[in-house]
Amino acid sequence: MRVYPAIDLLGGQAVRLREGKRDQATVYDHEPWSVAQRFAAAGARRVHVVDLDGAFAGTRDTANREALERIAGTLRAARVGLQVGGGVRTRAAVEGLRDIGVERVVLGTAAIKDPAMVAAACAAHPGGVVVAIDARNGKVAIEGWTVETDVLATELARQMIGVGAAALLYTDVSRDGTEVGPNVEATAALARAVAPVEVIASGGIGTLEHLRQLAAAGVPACVIGRALYEERFTLADAIRAAGSA
Length: 245
Known about the structure:
Elements: E1 2-10, E2 13-18, E3 21-29, H1 32-41, E4 46-51, H2 52-57, H3 62-78, E5 81-85, H4 91-99, E6 104-107, H5 109-113, H6 115-124, E7 129-136, E8 139-142, E9 147-152, H7 153-162, E10 167-172, H8 184-194, E11 198-202, H9 208-216, E12 221-224, H10 226-229, H11 235-241
Helix pairs in contact: 1-3
């Protein structure tokens, strides 16, 4: 199982939220590009970045734009992949991220509100679009997880695979940032349903045993955030536990 360490940006700083709530943000580093550099040195093959300001507001502020450019430059020099999401809701936003060297762009809200745009982005950048499926009680949540829809996560997954999504980032919103453990059963079921498309588990990973459970269930990849910042384990430990080379 591939391990993607996460950097969440808020006001140009590296933070983590709890259950996706902006008022429960913890600041971990004022230089997120330094965090990216440390992840690269520890063996990351790809780093996952979320622009939280973009996710909530739908636009990218100056501080986060500058941080993203520095992160992209840092990882490009280290030959480490970068995937970025949060507030990417137009083709212009997709192309803007691609222009600074983002390998894979993550689209979430747009998958519900503008599926034609997502399909066009997938066609323009084969292998370059990841669709985020953020779910609460099996139903998709959008707009930075503040709006719940009636769309089933499995239904959206099938639609997005059909238009060419390279991977699906599956987050159980109720577990994000809690370290109580990922929703192994739901994530593994989704991975089986869309194989061989990559499903990336996100939310709730707090121990090395959580990683082993996901790997044993056949989940192809995962994103880890708070557990790394709180030093529950190192990225190198996580990669070993997940069975990565």
